Known about the structure:
Elements: E1 2-3, E2 10-12, H1 33-36, H2 55-59, H3 63-66, E3 70-74, H4 78-90, E4 93-97, H5 103-108, E5 112-114, H6 117-122, E6 127-130, H7 137-143, E7 154-157, H8 163-172, E8 178-184, E9 199-208, H9 211-225, E10 230-233, H10 236-258, H11 270-283, H12 287-295, H13 300-331, H14 340-348
Parallel strand pairs: 3-4, 3-6, 4-5, 6-7, 7-8, 9-10
Antiparallel strand pairs: 1-9, 2-10, 8-9
Amino acid sequence: MLSSSTSTLRLHQPTRPHPPAAAAGGATHLTSPRRWRGHSPAPLRALDAAQPFDYESRAAGPLEERQRLKIAIVGFGNFGQFLARTFARQGHTLLAHSRTDHSAAASALGAAFFTDPHDLCECHPDVVLLATSILSAEAVLRSLPLHRLRRSTLFADVLSVKEFPRNLLLSSLPPGFDVICTHPMFGPESARDGWDGLPLVFERVRVGDCPARRARADAFLGAFEREGCRMVEMSCAEHDAHAAETQFLTHTVGRMLATLELRSTPVDTRGYETLIRLVDNTCSDSFDLYNGLFMYNKNSTELLNRLEWAMDSVKKRLFDGLHDVLRKQLFEGSPHAPNVSSSSSNVRK
């Protein structure tokens, strides 16, 4: 049976994952302990995609090594490399694939870079992490030779919207594959001093009901827990409803302010400096990301309508106040009002 998360939000405190137990046909294969102690890895060989997981190699070695995974990062751009730095420091084996040649960056992190997705999949990663742009996620996923992966591979994503990748993964992957949707609510700029206290939103969309597969899911999420992330479990639909305000609104306001070409002045206030930083933070991301936040979150259109209504409401209050002042000047004899009778007299003359 497969388990899925409910729509109830749960805050998770960091926990130490339990060691996986062997279960027929369901355990995940992790690399041998020798691989993790800094020795030069043996040449990667293609294995039969239907081969059962190797329980003996998992059983050898201490608990800490059982938590280490072979993670294939698909989409090795700025954000993929940002995640890879932490995964590598934790001791996970890293594989990387991207349409752009990032082999030098991968080598610097100790990751193996593959230009051909067939070669990547034949290495049988424990986790395939989709770190592409929102707009290219579907095309990239469909380019992967899924038949070359193990039949219960764990797929995860780090896209900034969640219902779209959830539905995409469930409709595109074989039913035996596990699925976890995540969104690190931080990036290279906001997390340059570490991930401690920053939220990681996730949903265990589909995880096989056996100890080894549950342990593999725990080990993957544990990579974020160990860095001190605030683990927030909620449904993908809930995430998108919240993210329309916390993320899409922020990016929209930042993009609007950017069109004003704001600059620092000799009399900057703290509030104005905050606006400048908002422009810098949001516009450092590509417009494709912003476009994806709009296109693939059904709550975004409603939020834009609310934002437009809010602006009109503020303008109405301002202009209504201005009209009240003018009416008093014109019709109630305010000292600042123009001399209507005198003007009229001059016209008659």
